[in-house]
Amino acid sequence: MSDLLLDAVRAEVAYRVGELQKTRGTGGRPRANRAVRWLRAHRLTGVAVPAQERREAVRASSDARAR
């Protein structure tokens, strides 16, 4: 592989990595910042979520006279 081709491949890889980071929205920030943001959003909000209740499906009557 020639040096020019190797340089071109390295430049293309660096460009694509940069574009993926911009698209992902991290901008090259370390992962710790994302973890801190997740913790703030999910653990420190103080919102009480009620427990889920199990419900049974209600079937419509197939009798035409029931209407």
Q: Can you give a write-up of this model?
A:
There is one protein chain. The protein has 67 residues and is an all-alpha fold. It has one domain (1-66). The chain contains two helices and no strands. It has helices at residues 3-24, 31-42.
Summary keywords:
67 residues, mainly alpha, elongated
Radius of gyration: 27 Å
Q: Choose one word for the global shape.
A: elongated
Order of helices and strands: HH
Count of discrete structural domains: 1
First-last Cα distance: 79 Å
Structural class: mainly alpha
Number of helices: 2
**Beta strand count:** 0
What value does the average pLDDT take? Answer: 78
The parts where pLDDT drops under 50 for at least 5 residues are none
Strand content: under 5%
Amount of helix:
40-55%
Q: The biggest beta sheet, please?
A: none
Concise summary:
Helices cover 51% and strands 0% of the residues. It has two helices and no strands.
Show the helix and strand layout.
Layout lengths: L2 H22 L6 H12 L25
